[in-house]
Inverse folding.
């Protein structure tokens, strides 16, 4: 630290640092029990097809409520679980439960929605293939109904090891989406090298009404068109943002303007059937 930061480096005790460490340790500790005591829940955020304005499917998003910590955001605990390796069993739980829910909705609503599920880099091992095969067999799911989301930054490290795994996942018939596009310092060549069908443009660009944000929205759509990739706009919050991404011919969109991530009971109270039929 001293070398890197030169004379700006402080050796004084920093209370906020201690608090952060304390919080991290507490989270780590509680996280290790959360799977056993079933403290996780999946919420589902609708993804809208901009061609029909009907429901295309959902993104499954994990929620964690701990008795002493309260609600902890995945933006806080997922990176931590990635550090500790706990993401692997948590990720397996997410895959299994999201697919189980998909099968239920397939039966209940006589429809074929797409379920998007986030994957972390640590899950991209060959053993994931057996897991995926077992899940589609157990729940009798068509893999074309499941989209696995990976981020650009997940593909940065040990790229060569993850590639055969991604190719095998795609060969099984699953769709692969590139998540948070534009934020991961990746090279554009990933768009052509990864076996993806769809790009999710990060919400920071969708919500930026300045020319710089618009330049990236429009350039992303143009390059994806040429490469035959579909594009989802993430984080659409206002009517103006929706109209803009419609004018750019985006394929799908997701955001608070339509719905926040919802619990199964909230969805089944009527929102789901409305989304499937509204004009
Ligand atoms: P993500 O995969 O990019 O998911 C989209 C995030 O944007 C979600 O946050 C969602 O609630 C939020 N969002 C959606 N629409 C809007 C909007 O209009 N405005 C704003 N401000 N936000 C919007 P969430 O649920 O807090 O998740 C944060 C991140 O945590 C996810 O980003 C993903 O990277 C990670 N995550 C969540 N669930 C899982 C999981 O099951 N597995 C893994 N590996 N990561 C997960
Ligand atoms: Mg959150
Ligand atoms: Mg995602
Ligand atoms: Mg995203």
């Amino acid at each position: 630290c001293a070398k890197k930061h030169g004379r700006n480096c402080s050796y004084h005790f920093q209370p906020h640092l201690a608090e952060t460490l304390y919080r991290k340790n507490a989270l780590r500790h509680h996280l290790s029990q959360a799977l056993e005591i079933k403290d996780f829940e999946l919420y589902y955020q609708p993804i809208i097809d901009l061609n029909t304005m009907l429901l295309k499917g959902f993104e499954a998003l994990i929620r964690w409520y701990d008795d002493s910590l309260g609600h902890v955001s995945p933006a806080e605990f997922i990176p931590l679980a990635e550090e500790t390796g706990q993401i692997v069993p948590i990720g397996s739980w997410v895959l299994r439960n999201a697919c189980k829910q998909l099968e239920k909705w397939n039966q209940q609503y006589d429809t074929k929605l797409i379920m998007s599920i986030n994957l972390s880099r640590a899950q991209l091992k060959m053993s994931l293939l057996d897991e995926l095969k077992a899940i589609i067999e157990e729940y009798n799911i068509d893999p074309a109904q499941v989209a696995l989301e990976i981020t650009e930054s997940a593909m940065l490290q040990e790229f060569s090891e993850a590639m055969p795994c991604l190719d095998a996942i795609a060969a099984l018939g699953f769709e692969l989406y590139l998540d948070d596009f534009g934020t991961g310092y990746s090279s554009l060549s990933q768009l052509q090298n990864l076996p993806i069908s769809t790009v999710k443009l990060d919400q920071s660009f969708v919500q930026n009404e300045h020319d710089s944000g618009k330049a990236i929205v429009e350039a992303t759509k143009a390059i994806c068109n040429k490469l035959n990739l579909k594009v989802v706009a993430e984080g659409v919050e206002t009517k103006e943002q929706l109209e803009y991404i419609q004018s750019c011919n985006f394929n799908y969109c997701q955001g608070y303007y339509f719905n926040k991530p919802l619990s199964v009971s909230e969805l089944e109270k009527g929102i789901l059937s409305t989304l499937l039929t509204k004009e």
